[in-house]
Amino acid sequence: MIEAINEALDLKMTEDPDIVVMGEDVGYFGGVFRATAGLQEKHGKNRVFDTPISECGIIGAAVGMGAYGLRPVPEIQFADYIYPGLDQLISEAARLRYRSAGEYIAPMTVRSPFGGGIFGGQTHSQSPEALFAHVAGLKTVIPATPYDAKGLLIAAIEDNDPVIFFEPKRIYNAPFTGYYDKPVEPWKKHRDSIVPEGHYSIPLGKARIVQEGEAMTVLAYGTMVHVAEAVCREKGIDAEILDLRTIVPLDIEAIEASVKKTGRCLIVHEATRTAGFGAELSALVMERCFFHLEAPVERVTGFDTPYPHSLEWAYFPGPVRIGEAIDKIMKA
Amino acid sequence: MANRPDEAAGKGANKPALELHVPEPTYRPGDPVDFAHIHVPEAGAQARPDEVCDAIETSSLCYDLVRVLGDDNKAHGPWDPKLDPDTLRTMLHSFAMVHAFDERMFRGQRQGKTSFYMKCTGEEATSISAAMALASDDMIFPSYRQQGILISRGYPLIEMINQIYSNKGDKLKGRQLPIMYSSREHSFFSISGNLATQTPQAVGWAMASAIKGDSRIAATWVGEGSTAEGDFHAACTFATVYNAPVILNVINNQWAISSFSGFAGGERTTFAARALGYGLAGIRVDGNDPLAVYAAERWAANRARANGGPTLIEHFTYRAEGHSTSDDPSGYRSAQEREEWPLGDPVTRLKNHLIELGEWDEERQVAMDLACAEEVKAATKEAEKNGILGHGLHHPFRTMFEDVFEELPWHLKEQSEQAIRERETKFPEGRPGS
């Protein structure tokens, strides 16, 4: 996935001279996860550069660059570090088009690795997507495969609204089956790993049907798509799995059609439970599909605690938690 | 309280008790005013370093006060911008216009025509004189008291009033608080209510201009109180790191609502001196001296344009009026402060300078003030035809949902339809004021 992201950045920078990549360590070093490797050498220091350690400054400068007419792609090194930049994102970037009635826009794509699973402790593991979904004017994108990462990132960069692009760092280099003690299949052998060369984009707001099924609908995004898929496969559940890809805008049509077909719905995300994005999904399903439901909607999420370091595999919503929820739904 | 290693010895043992310092202004309502602690140096006594000098060479200017107009109403010293009388009269006209505008809009708020207004009395030079030293397409990232910049750039008064009234002529569609203007055509950025957020944005804009090899620079305005915000420090860091062609104007008008400048750290140092720690050039200027403000801004603009780097200018001035129409300064500061302010009033000083030059007189001033008042009155009447705040729902309901995103997503379409549906129930007689 990390190579797909690098490819998307390189391709868009080649196509559009107004794209600027900036962030902590993104220049000469190419990013702590190597997402921007080689870009400075190829596109020059004027367009790919390191920044001071100031998320507020990074996002704030990006707002000004967007107002000038550039299309900045700032990197926030870890999603957990995005909070010092929140005011610039929430009060400024997200609302600039609205408050100026379209006179000024902030067309930026804020890339940030997010989620746990790499022993990152409480400050390198969070999934703050619900926070952004709550803000009018921001789009939130979360790819689950290398193919999607490239296509969605290209679409995000081309979009004229500010986009938060959360990259599930647990699956940067390989898909994740959901088991800590099982060997992980390398991306290059994985069916989702094929990334075509050249330009293609995936429209924001269109979910991907990972697999069709009749028994239940599973709504997931990011790493949890792979975990849910593995559990359904192992349990032999004929589930229809939707990878939402973007939570704002949300593909309500795909969700509605699937749940009305299967009559059951499981929502899986890694972020904390209370007021998480699963709560919104659950409410939408209840509002729109209630009379088609044969079982209560279930949510599988992280716990409402800070992300623990040594116990992260107890925290992570894995096969056991998902399996229990599936059993509960199927028995209802 | 956490256990301490020497707890057994009793509280603090024989160490002196620590004390918290909570800043307090020199006088409060009812106290006699004495501005003796403000050192007013002689006009013309400040050296003017080369515009592309090393930032460190501005150190003394960070603690001094650049002044041009002396008590004799003449221009003095190396900072004299040597402006021709026509330019000075243009400046004076903008002063008169912003004064007339403030008066009329203040009254409009008291008459219930809008919710809120902010005057810039006493601070006219910090926006008008500064903006006149910039090119008309240099980008402005303003705070909320820079209406003078729009006026000096020729933004139509009626557009400003439409915005203040949030009426159907308001091109911001009634979404922004009064006075939070935006005009891309006049290179004037949309104003935010969150403080100091415009400062890193200005730096980012300036960086973009440099990235593209443009010749335009950016300038931003922030109050001295807001320099305590993290954004301001991010802006200073980014400005210095990338040598951004930007000017950071700090308006030290002594008061952030009821908190005096001591709460932003002004007791210990000057705001201009903040520049030194960042490696920025810094200038502390008499903000009530229109010529000094012009000269300092022009110096910084030339520096930025020559890739000499960013400049932080502290405009040392005084907020003669309340913070806004919602504020009553008699509750926290001495009523005599305004009259006693040792640096006078910028409008009077410029007027007296022109009279001293033989290029102006009191009669023409009176006539100009009157003409400005009439012009504002006419614009107000014209704007009122588009409605005033609270007397109508001036914009179609669907506009509430526009511009959240470039395209309307499904959930906003649904909510827009809901708002229109509710209209029938809420306003059976039709929309008021439409």
TrEMBL record, chain A:
Single GO molecular function: branched-chain 2-oxo acid dehydrogenase activity
Superkingdom in the source lineage: Bacteria
EC number annotated for this UniProt entry: 1.2.4.4
UniProt keyword terms in alphabetical order: Oxidoreductase
Domain (Transketolase-like pyrimidine-binding) ranges: 1-174
Keyword Membrane in record: no
Gene3D superfamilies in UniProt: 3.40.50.920, 3.40.50.970
CDD domains (alphabetical): TPP_PYR_E1-PDHc-beta_like
Pfam families named among the record's database cross-references: Transket_pyr (PF02779), Transketolase_C (PF02780)
The protein's required cofactors: thiamine diphosphate
GO biological processes: branched-chain amino acid catabolic process; response to nutrient
Designated name of the protein: 3-methyl-2-oxobutanoate dehydrogenase (2-methylpropanoyl-transferring)
UniProtKB/TrEMBL annotation, chain B:
Keywords: Oxidoreductase, Thiamine pyrophosphate
EC nos: 1.2.4.4
Domain 2-oxoisovalerate dehydrogenase E1 alpha subunit N-terminal: 16-55
Cofactor needs: thiamine diphosphate
Segments for region (Disordered): 1-26, 415-434
EC supergroup of this enzyme: oxidoreductase
Domain called Dehydrogenase E1 component: residue spans: 97-388
Catalytic activity reported: N(6)-[(R)-lipoyl]-L-lysyl-[protein] + 3-methyl-2-oxobutanoate + H(+) = N(6)-[(R)-S(8)-2-methylpropanoyldihydrolipoyl]-L-lysyl-[protein] + CO2
Recorded family membership: Belongs to the BCKDHA family.
Protein name: 2-oxoisovalerate dehydrogenase subunit alpha
Organism (species): Pontixanthobacter gangjinensis
